[in-house]
Amino acid sequence: MTDEPDPEALPPVLAVAWQRTPPPARGPRPSLTVAAIVGAAVEIADEEGIDAVSMARVAGRLGYTPMALYRHVRSKDDLLALAQDAAFADPPTLDAAAGWRPGLEAWTRALAAAYRARPWVLDIPIAGPPSLPRQVAWLDRALAVLEGTPLLPHERLSAALMLSNHARSWSMLARDLERSRGSTGTGPPAGTDALRLVAELAAPDRFPAVGPVLRDVLAAIEAEDDDGEDVADEFEFGLQRILDGLDAHMRRA
Question: I want to staple 102 with a disulfide (CB 3.0 to 4.6 A). Which of 98, 108, 169, 238 is the partner?
Answer without folding.
Answer: 98
